[in-house]
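User: what does the whole thing look like in 3D?
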Amino acid sequence: MAADGAQAQSVQTQSAAAPPANGAPLLELRDVDASYGKVQILHAASLAIHPGEVVSIIGPNGAGKSTVLKAVMGILRPTTGQILFDGQSITGLRPDQIVRRGIGYVPQGRIVFRDMTVAENLEMGAFTIADKGRVRPLMDRVFTVFPRLGERRTQRAGTMSGGEQQMLAMGRVLMSEPRVVLMDEPSLGLAPRFIELVFEKIGELKEAGMTLLLVEQNAAKSLSISDRGYVLELGRNRFTGSGPDLLADDRVRRLYLGG
Amino acid sequence: MDLLQVIVSGLLLGGVYALLAAGLNLIFGVMRVINLAHGELLMLGAYATFFFYDTTGLNPLLAIPLVAAAMFAGGMVLQRLTIERVVGQPLLSSLLLTFGLSTLLTGVALNLWTTNFRSVVYEPLTGSLGIGGLSISRSRLVAFAIALVVSGATYVFLRRSTWGKAIRATAQHAEVAQVCGIDVGRVRLVSFGLGSAMAATAGSLVAIVFTFNPEIGRVFIGKAFAIIVLGGLGSFVGAFLGALTLGVTETLAAYYTSTQLSEAVAYAVMVGVLLVRPSGFFGQAES
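Assistant: Here's the predicted 3D structure for the full assembly of 546 residues, as structure tokens:
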């Protein structure tokens, strides 16, 4: 991709903007191109997430934010470029194989198995856990993070509110004990109190040391809880920097934060 | 008393129908493929049972697990070679493909086994039992019991086991099932095998209860469609109730009018339900 030679601008050169010095990234995209049919969405997109980091991808509609996550998950195969997890290529693997490697994914639109109970949904989240004796303790742990789910364990997921379904989708991903979790627009279309709750829970996961990659249209909120952020525009890296630096940057503010 | 006799007889018939419809439903749920060759899978099961009995002379019920296992394997091969290629394609592709398979299987069977009607007449399964003033055909009673056990076992498997739940999860949302770590390709493979085995078991029961020839597939697929329309597409319990309803309706029609007319009943029921209540009577609207 010669045309994309210009690398993303770094917003600041403070040490906070640099990835933690402790070695290799957990998840890395190297010059990934991806297309839907004939329409190329990603143009040499590159990013890296280190263990324990919370990283946001922001950018306008159509920037390819969700596509980055789909490419990582193997839902969409990159046409060129490489995706590395823990130093090994996962490019071209099936989604279920990628989940088994330790990557969790919360798809956009709070999708749950509607005709299954809350407990069954969580059980499906633990599909890759070979030792079925561990499913119960994992489920109990999800219930401590999301007490509401514990109260509704026998309720059919389709009968819950949108916010509760998003909690369930987030709880479900934890069941596979992922080493990194990708979340696609977790606050999209939720009532304000649930938006608060979603970000509160993401904050709790961060405190617990979870590595997270967030795609959010709510850029300000998302950056404020992130260690670092990437600004994507038309499938290309545009800016990158620490959460606070991006929030403070005039260009980013003007273009993507509506201020 | 006549009426009760007819109704019981119809209910017993419905059990076999239920097994056929449940397999069709399972395949549709997981693959969004309407398997027009489902009746031919039944027909193959019937012939396999016939040949088992014809060569060994053993109780034809012993053939059921063998035939089911063989069709489970055969169904998986068929899925991998053909059906898998139309998954996610427009419905017309899979309809044409399975229509082609149906015609092909019927044609081959006609060539091998002619249009002659066959049946499995095993002495201990003939005759009737008198129960409370009703005369109940022994073969129908046995067929009903087996159909009930196999349907029930499948239901419990889908409800309770991890693999069964994975099948349901895939039917509800394949992409999310996949990012739960479920290999949905394998789920499709196993589901088609399972659906084929259920059709073949229904075929074994048909061989014991009725006479059959290579063309019965078409008769039975019509019944299966009527049942699914009655019960609501994708609903296991709905299909079961629909099957019993069809069994009774058909038997009543045969008793009070003629056998020829009873064949048309399935279609009349289907058209009627589609006009009045297109989502079916028993299945709740499932997403």
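In plain terms: The two ends of chain A are 33 Å apart (CA to CA). Residues 1-6, 13-19 of chain A have pLDDT under 50 and may be disordered.
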